[in-house]
Amino acid sequence: MSWKRTLEKIINWELWPFELRYSLITPVWAWYCLRSRSLWFFSPSNPTITFGGFEGEDKREMYDQLPKELYPKTIYIHPSDDFASVKEQVEKNGFTYPFIVKPDVGMKGLLFRKIDTIQELQVYHKMVPCDYLIQELVDYPLEISVFYYRYPVDQKGVITGFIQKDLMDVVGNGKSTLWELINEHPKARHRLEEMRVKHKENLDTVVKAGERYILTYAANLNRGARFTNLHHLIDDELCAVFDKLSHQTTFYYGRYDIKCASIEDLKKGLNFSILEFNGSGAEPNHVYNAGFTLFQAYKEFLLHWKVLYRISKMNARAGHPYWSFKRGLRHMQQSKRHMKELEALDTQILI
Prior knowledge:
Elements: H1 2-11, H2 18-22, H3 26-36, H4 59-63, E1 74-77, H5 83-92, E2 99-103, E3 113-115, H6 118-127, E4 132-136, E5 142-149, E6 158-166, E7 169-171, H7 178-184, H8 192-198, E8 212-214, E9 226-229, H9 236-249, E10 253-260, H10 263-267, E11 272-278, H11 294-317, H12 325-346
Antiparallel strand pairs: 1-4, 2-3, 2-4, 5-6, 5-10, 6-9, 7-8, 10-11
Helix pairs in contact: 3-11
């Protein structure tokens, strides 16, 4: 079985490590750095977000620019806060269980958790060393991603990617244990150590026939979410919704993660909630699970890099300078240290 998984990882470029996946086109990124005379050529892309939203930006910075009705009810918690104070804030702001917790500065769904009880919240608060947010669990049935960009000189932008995201899960057959189902899952079987740690109390449980067991509540690529390409549903009506958002927030380039009641409602600007906005560091994730060859994916990556370079150059000329080498390096080093800390803790907090 192990050699088959190894072979699958070699053949399927989507399973390659990030560095290997991008290795052949890295020189293009370097060329944009040279043309901009800045290693951080992307930093002016979204002027109202730290580092253009490439890495290490906090979510509060993004939410503060959105109308309150367009994102989930959220409160911010500092790790030094007394838990009695945290409990009081939860009650005062009308939160009911379950709700979501996640680091204010996060990535890859690390330490993203659904909290069902006050005991789970207490465990999370005790172990998480950084600022985090408590956020209502949005009950809209669809989670989607929209990749949007707009040149600063234009009134209208472009949607290049539109996908539906479904949580990584297994469905029971009344015979197989959870561990057996995980080993048969096309994505979970490549994350066995993570699954073993996170679901250790249920691994030997036989999942009832037809019962859905969710393996992770973070609907992103790094947490094994299943993507469905909705590119055929992109139209002027959908673009108009994000043009309006872009003018309100000056988000010029990036990916919106959204929950909505339906695609029809989203196109009307109704019944949706923005979970996150990922700026210049956002991948065009519509290339995954969509049958793209590696070179078709490269074509899409290069298109987005070219757009990112042009938007950043326009904003730099408009008075939003590129970050200095020293400033960017310090920020990246801090961000890497923070991510390593989150990665180490992610397998220890078993809620």
